[in-house]
Amino acid sequence: MEEYPRREHFRYFSAMPVPTFGITARVDVTGLVRFCRERRCSFYMRAVNKLRAGEHAHNESPVDDNPRFCWGRYEEDHRGRLMLPFTLNANHALMDGVHAGAFYRRLQEELDKV
């Protein structure tokens, strides 16, 4: 732990009864929805595959370091894109907003590959 670059953050947030935070961002799933409709495949299963590709490595830790994901219903925005509200809940002792932002960027990059 002494070598962990975020050790002070870890100690601070680990002392909290619930050291989690959540952030919701809208991700563009237009290409994925189109892909699934054309191939008559499950949007849910394809989305899970893209989510797994967007995951980042976790530090080994005795605390609950499993992020939780939740998504809602995609809707068309004013530009005709299908946007999906996607929530990440994570342990603040292990990650900050910059890490969440990197996750969302990587997830969107994976979705854009479709």
Summarize the structure.
The protein is of the alpha+beta class and 114 residues long. The protein has helices at residues 7-14, 30-39, 43-54, 97-112; strands at 20-28, 68-71, 75-76, 82-91. β3 (75-76) and β4 (82-91) form a beta hairpin.
Helix content: 40-55%
End-to-end Cα distance, whole Å, is 40 Å
Q: Give the C-alpha Rg.
A: 16 Å
Count of alpha/pi helices: 4
Q: Strand percentage, roughly? A: 15-25%
Largest sheet: 4 strands, antiparallel
> Which residues form runs of ≥5 with pLDDT under 50?
none
Order of helices and strands: HEHHEEEH
Number of strands: 4
Apparent shape: elongated
Average pLDDT over all residues: 87
Q: Which structural class best describes the helix and strand composition?
A: alpha+beta
Please name the defining characteristics of this protein.
114 residues, elongated, 4 strands, 22% strand, alpha+beta
Can you offer a commentary on this structure?
With 114 residues, the protein is an alpha+beta fold. It is 40% helix and 22% strand. The chain has helices at 7-14, 30-39, 43-54, 97-112, and strands at residues 20-28, 68-71, 75-76, 82-91. Strands 1, 2, 3 and 4 form a 4-stranded antiparallel sheet that branches. It is elongated and about 50 Å long.
Q: What topology does this entry show?
A:
Blueprint: H1 7-14, E1 20-28, H2 30-39, H3 43-54, E2 68-71, E3 75-76, E4 82-91, H4 97-112
Antiparallel strand pairs: 1-4, 2-4, 3-4
Helix pairs in contact: 3-4
